[in-house]
Amino acid sequence: MRRILVVEDEEKIREVIVAYLRKEGFEAHEASGGESAWSELANQPFDLVLLDLMLPDMNGEELCQKIRTAYPTPIIMLTAKSSVSHRIHGLSVGADDYMVKPFDPQELIARIRTVLRRTNQQELLADRLEYGEGRLMIDSHAKQVFVQHKPISLTPSEYKLLLVMARNSERTFSREELIELVMGFEFDGDSRIIDQHVKNLRQKIEEDPKNPLFIRTVFGAGYRFNGGSL
Fold first, then answer.
1. Lowest-confidence segment of 93-107, 109-123, 133-147, 148-162 by average pLDDT
2. Which of 12, 30, 63, 70 could form a disulfide bond with 181, CB atoms 3.0-4.6 angstroms apart?
3. Which keywords accompany this UniProt record (predicted)?
């Protein structure tokens, strides 16, 4: 059964969508805001997110970008904004499809099935990420990491940190960004905990942790994953 997260602050609309999803055989979960949606995503995997852009606690486009950075989960945006420029912008920040309110629930179900079919085909090609001519390999389907073809043991936070950075190779992340993506919005500790996670990761995946090839420090900015040639 495919699991779908419905992020919509209007209760009546959310109830209608959830009812149709369950009628069509989907497992539907609900979130009324950005922070609650992020917590749901951190606690369990979803096959698709239906994301309303007008949320009470966060801009929906901002949440879309955060989801896209941390997870491969497909996203269908739901919005009352119908102009071409709004649709183009929504797709440019990471949405897989875009539906304008009001919409026919049957059309929404059809769009969901289409996006799921397309992303399923893509996932077959993206289960394994390899770097350094195969020296580092991440099997995102099995949630297993290999160094020199040998499996290594990572904590859940270490694995998520590595996967987020590897999927966004060459992007520099601040500590605060990594805290939100790995630990969640509700984390209220010291952002320097990311430094310890990076140190632990380097010990496990780098040949020389003091001169890392994969996880680079960008002084004054944060960290960047080197996915190119070593």
1. 109-123
2. 70
3. DNA-binding, Phosphoprotein, Transcription, Transcription regulation, Two-component regulatory system
Nearest C-alpha neighbor of 48 from the set 105, 1, 102: 1
Domain carrying residue 18? 3-124
Determine the angle formed by the axes of helices 60-70 and 34-43, rounding to 10 degrees. 20
Say how many domains are in the chain.
Answer: 2
Nearest to 26 by CA among 110, 97, 92, 83: 110
Q: Is 173 helix (H, G, I), strand (E, B) or coil?
A: strand
C-alpha span between 119 and 76 (Å, rounded): 12
Q: Which residues pair with 79 in a beta bridge?
A: 100
200: CATH: 1.10.10.10
pLDDT digits (tens, 9 = 90+) for 158-217: 888 998 899 888 789 998 888 877 776 656 667 778 898 999 999 999 999 999 999 999
Name the strands in the sheet holding 128-131, side by side, starting at the edge strand that comes first in the sequence. Answer: 128-131, 136-139, 144-147, 150-152
Are 116 and 74 spatial neighbours (Cβ–Cβ below 8 Å)?
yes
Q: Are residues 191 and 217 in the same domain?
A: yes
> According to the 3-state scheme, what is the secondary structure of 9-33?
CCHHHHHHHHHHHHHCCCEEEEECC
| Size of the chain, expressed as the number of residues it contains | 230
Q: pTM for the full model?
A: 0.62
Residue 230 resides in a domain? no
